[in-house]
């Protein structure tokens, strides 16, 4: 059993970090993947200079939302982009999610799918390192977000997990109708999606190994930072 995994990379105006994110997705030890780069019409031309380096790679699919500045805040854009990527561009039986300033460790998808193959669960997660902008493991993230949540199954993943550390089946995505992307969801569209999965009866299962397999970077002008500081979610990036 070797199901196709669609890795959705959401991109907006982060050329420095985007290169690392795409490379980490392409270089997974699990070979049956496709990588869908969903750029949200980034105004920084360097973003496309990064993306075009990968367009000849057979694993890569790419689309640009062509969203206007006037429309950009009418929906939660990363959720809108994920929905479009999954529905219009992906073919995977399983879906993973990756923000442009975060990255996977090389064996993440392989270890996640090994667990899927042995359990047939629809929603699984791994532990996650929290890193600062210099790549150093940051404070409370030392043991990896998710390590302390390794109950089976996890109760209320919506309150505890980040979307970069979760793999969902396409069937579960379709059952709940994808991600909410209304304007009010900016500060936590992943938690809202997870809540919908839980209410639909999907449980969140940790993989057997508590080793962190993914890195989440917190930085100034990220969506979370901007929202916490009362700024526009897209900030000044």
Summary keywords:
Spore Coat Polysaccharide Biosynthesis Protein SpsA, Chain A; 10 strands; 7 helices; single chain; three-stranded mixed sheet; 237 residues
Give me a quick take on this structure.
By secondary structure, this protein is an alpha/beta fold.
Topology, please?
Elements: E1 5-11, H1 15-26, E2 33-39, H2 45-51, E3 60-64, H3 77-89, E4 94-99, E5 103-104, H4 108-119, E6 123-125, E7 128-131, E8 166-169, H5 170-176, H6 189-199, E9 205-206, E10 214-217, H7 223-228
Parallel strand pairs: 1-2, 1-4, 2-3, 6-9, 7-10
Antiparallel strand pairs: 4-8, 5-10, 6-8
Protein model, in words:
This protein has 237 residues and is of the alpha/beta class. It has one domain (5-228): Spore Coat Polysaccharide Biosynthesis Protein SpsA, Chain A. 29% of the residues lie in helices and 19% in strands. It has 7 helices and 10 strands. It has helices at 15-26, 45-51, 77-89, 108-119, 170-176, 189-199, 223-228, and strands at 5-11, 33-39, 60-64, 94-99, 103-104, 123-125, 128-131, 166-169, 205-206, 214-217. The strands form 2 sheets. Strands 3-2-1-4-8-6-9 form a 7-stranded mixed β-sheet, sandwiched between helices. Helix 2 (45-51) links the parallel strand 2 (33-39) and strand 3. Helix 1 runs parallel beside helix 2 (45-51). The longest helix is centred in the middle third of the chain and has 13 residues, at 77-89.
């Amino acid at each position: 059993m070797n199901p196709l995994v669609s890795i959705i990379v959401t991109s907006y105006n982060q050329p420095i970090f985007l290169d690392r994110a795409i490379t980490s997705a392409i270089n997974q030890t699990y070979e049956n993947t496709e990588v869908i780069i969903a750029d949200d019409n980034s105004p920084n031309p360097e973003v496309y200079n990064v993306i075009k380096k990968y367009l000849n790679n057979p694993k890569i699919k790419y689309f640009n939302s062509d969203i206007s500045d006037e429309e950009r805040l009418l929906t939660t854009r990363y959720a809108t982009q994920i929905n479009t990527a999954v529905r219009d561009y992906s073919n995977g039986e399983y879906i993973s999610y990756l923000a442009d300033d975060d990255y996977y460790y090389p064996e993440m998808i392989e270890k996640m799918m090994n667990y899927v193959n042995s359990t047939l669960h629809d929603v699984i997660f791994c532990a996650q390192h929290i890193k600062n902008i210099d790549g150093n493991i940051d404070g409370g993230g030392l043991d990896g977000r998710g390590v302390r949540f390794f109950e089976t199954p996890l109760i209320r993943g919506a309150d505890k997990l980040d979307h970069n550390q979760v793999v969902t089946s396409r069937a579960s995505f379709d059952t709940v109708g994808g991600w909410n992307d209304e304007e009010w969801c900016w500060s936590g569209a992943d938690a809202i999606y997870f809540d919908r999965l839980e209410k639909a009866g999907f449980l969140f299962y940790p993989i057997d190994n508590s080793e962190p397999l993914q890195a989440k970077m917190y930085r100034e002008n990220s969506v979370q930072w901007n929202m916490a500081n009362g700024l526009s979610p897209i900030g000044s990036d």
